[in-house]
């Protein structure tokens, strides 16, 4: 992992199935948008890049959850992803999942730990 651990946000900035917090990472040597959300009590983070086309998912900054449940949705063509692991659940993402990022929550804060392949 090329990135050192760094603070993303306070824990209480992430409500269950609520707005996510956007942040930036280095991915293959380039800055890339990312986000973290809370689902089923845990924090989950991904590159903010759809598996269908390299578009950001949120139609308004921080809005990642579909209106009717706990799935993440791409605002461009409606691809659905599981909040727990980023796998494609339906729509044009096919078999391409979101890129997962390592995060940890402790002592009231959420930290980015890095990616496995960020160069
Ligand atoms: S760009 Fe996300 S569904 Fe097409």
Structural account:
The structure is a single chain. This protein is 0% helix and 42% strand. The chain has strands at residues 6-10, 21-27, 30-39, 42-47, 71-73, 80-82, 88-90, 100-106, 109-114. A six-stranded antiparallel sheet has the order 1-9-8-4-3-2, with no helix packed on it. Strands 5-6-7 form a three-stranded antiparallel sheet, with no helix packed on it. Strand 6 (80-82) and strand 7 form a beta hairpin. The model has no long low-confidence stretch (mean pLDDT 93). The protein binds FE2/S2 (inorganic) cluster (FES). Residues 50, 52-53, 55, 74, 76-79, 91-92 line the site of FE2/S2 (inorganic) cluster. FE2/S2 (inorganic) cluster binds next to loops.
The H/E string reads EEEEEEEEE
Oligomer: single chain
Q: pLDDT average, as an integer? A: 93
Radius of gyration: 13 Å
Low-confidence segments:
none
What's the end-to-end separation, in Å? Answer: 8 Å
Helix-strand category: mainly beta
Small molecules held by this entry: FE2/S2 (inorganic) cluster
| Strands, total number | 9
Biggest sheet descriptor: 6 strands, antiparallel
Overall spatial form: globular
Give the strand line-up of the largest sheet: 1-9-8-4-3-2
Helical content stands at: under 10%
Number of helices: 0
Strand content: 35-45%
């Amino acid at each position: 992992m090329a990135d050192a651990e760094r603070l993303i946000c306070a824990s209480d900035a992430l409500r269950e199935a609520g707005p996510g917090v956007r942040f930036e990472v280095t991915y293959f040597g380039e800055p890339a948008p990312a986000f973290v959300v809370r689902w089923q009590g845990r924090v989950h983070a991904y590159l903010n890049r759809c598996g269908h086309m390299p578009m950001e998912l949120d139609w308004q900054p921080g809005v990642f959850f579909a209106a009717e449940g706990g799935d993440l949705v791409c605002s461009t063509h409606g691809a659905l992803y599981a909040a727990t692991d980023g796998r494609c659940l339906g729509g044009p993402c096919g078999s391409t999942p979101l890129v997962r990022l390592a995060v940890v929550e402790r002592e009231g804060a959420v930290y980015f730990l890095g990616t496995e392949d960020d160069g």
